[in-house]
Amino acid sequence: MTEILTDRSGLLPSGPPSEVVVARDVDHVRETLRRAHRDRIPVVTRGAGSGLAGGAVADAGAIVLDVSALDRILSIDPVDGVAHVEPGVITADLDRAARARGLFYAPDPGSVELSTIGGNIATNAGGLRGAKYGVTRDAVLALDVVLADGSLVRVGRPTIKGVTGYDIASLIVGSEGTLGVVVGATLRLLPAPPETATAAAFFPSLDRAAEAVAAIAVSGARPAVLEIVDAATLAAIDEAEGTRLRERGEAFLLAQTDGFGAERELAVVREAIAPLAADLEWTSDPERAEGLIAARRRALPAIERRGRVLIEDIAVPRSRLADAVRGIQRIAAETGTEIFVFGHAGDGNLHPNILTGGAPGDPISPAAEEAAERIFALALSLGGTLTAEHGIGRLKRSWVAREVGDEVHALQRRIKDLLDPHGILNPGAAL
Ligand SMILES: Cc1cc2nc3c(=O)[nH]c(=O)nc-3n(C[C@H](O)[C@H](O)[C@H](O)COP(=O)(O)OP(=O)(O)OC[C@H]3O[C@@H](n4cnc5c(N)ncnc54)[C@H](O)[C@@H]3O)c2cc1C
């Protein structure tokens, strides 16, 4: 039961909910919201609960609205390049279904096998392929949304292009369940790349790996995947998976090119990073490549074996990646914390994972708290953001105004008030 009240952030509910509703269909969602609107009951919508920001953690007295059972892929149209799906579809299931028709669904968070499309939309999830294909917003064409009062609207359109009126679909993307409940989505699919080529490079320092990212950025190549992993994370992966990655260097970069000419493009990547790398291998064998990518996907569970972690999610301009890496290392040393760093380097998105000890729900240690605060400040000082893809949730609310400024924060609140006048939709999150 407690599982349905929290997510993967380690945050515990503030108290028992008033009710858990497992939605059977769209009418069930509408009826639940109508009732909540009338009786002023907060509603916390949830998909798979794989979120890392405390977005789907139940508040005392709230209705927990689980939409994960609405999980049908309603249609895939290869000519239009679109899929129409319900919100509970697991991200990887949509990708597999698309591939069976010669297409693919580009956004692929590390949690693809767990997360739902609705949760991805509500958090504007990124993923490994973001370096080339962007984030969930780039794949959303239209949404069916149940508003706070239970009314159902369709925003956006099923065409690839279209600019009539304000772009409300984009406003819903990333709104963390605070503006409406997504009950359907029309998503863009792309032709499945015929070839991939993958390079794994190890570096004598994390700094050097960050320099390699800059070298790739100006090389003319555009890898679909460009992931960075530090030494501490490599050691954790080795311990969990029985691999021997750590002995090969202090940092690891994984680059994958795709499409016609993938090998040629990877040659450009290899040329850019060879002078910086200590050890470089590459393959065009999809199975071997999948092994390397799978190791990267398992980074977070591997770190979590060491204890509770505070998972941060900053992004900085790619040109400041090396400064961010150096800054995080300094913060770890000065606060006496253990920080594991990996991330989507192609997007300038780093996940510093601060080991905080204790069990889920225990208070975060003061040292870990200080390290997190200093990492947020570092990101902002480098022209970055405090959350690139996980969302603000309940964990980072106190920092929103510091990033966007008081005026824009107030504007966001006015938008929220307009769409949700009684403030029932996930009131503890996002703003
Ligand atoms: C191992 C691991 C790796 C991860 N890797 C990545 C990564 O690479 N990139 C990334 O972006 N994230 C990653 N995540 C975080 C997480 O998987 C994403 O945030 C994901 O989008 C959450 O989807 P979910 O279905 O689990 O949503 P939940 O956790 O259930 O909810 C997340 C938020 O969305 C809202 N919500 C959920 N469904 C709806 C809906 N239908 N309508 C309106 N609001 C809704 C909730 O209220 C909440 O605010 C990772 C998590 C794990 C555990």
Q: What can you see in these coordinates?
A:
The protein is 33% helix and 21% strand. The chain has 14 helices and 18 strands. Strands 11, 12, 13, 14, 15, 16, 17 and 18 form an 8-stranded antiparallel β-sheet that branches. It has a 5-stranded antiparallel β-sheet with strand order 4-5-9-7-8. The chain folds into 3 domains: 73-191, Uridine Diphospho-n-acetylenolpyruvylglucosamine Reductase, domain 3 (2-Layer Sandwich), CATH 3.30.465; 196-298, Alpha-Beta Plaits (2-Layer Sandwich), CATH 3.30.70.2190; 302-390, Alpha-Beta Plaits (2-Layer Sandwich). The protein is α+β, with helices and mostly antiparallel strands and 431 residues long. The chain starts with 18 loop residues before the first strand and ends in a 12-residue tail after the last helix. The mean pLDDT is 95. The longest helix is centred in the last third of the chain and has 16 residues, at 366-381. Helix 6 crosses helix 8, helix 6 packs antiparallel against helix 11 (321-335) and helix 11 (321-335) packs antiparallel against helix 12 (366-381). Flavin-adenine dinucleotide binds at residues 7-8, 44-52, 55-56, 67, 87, 109-111, 115-116, 118-120, 122-123, 125-127, 176-177, 181-182, 300-301, 389-390, 426, 429.
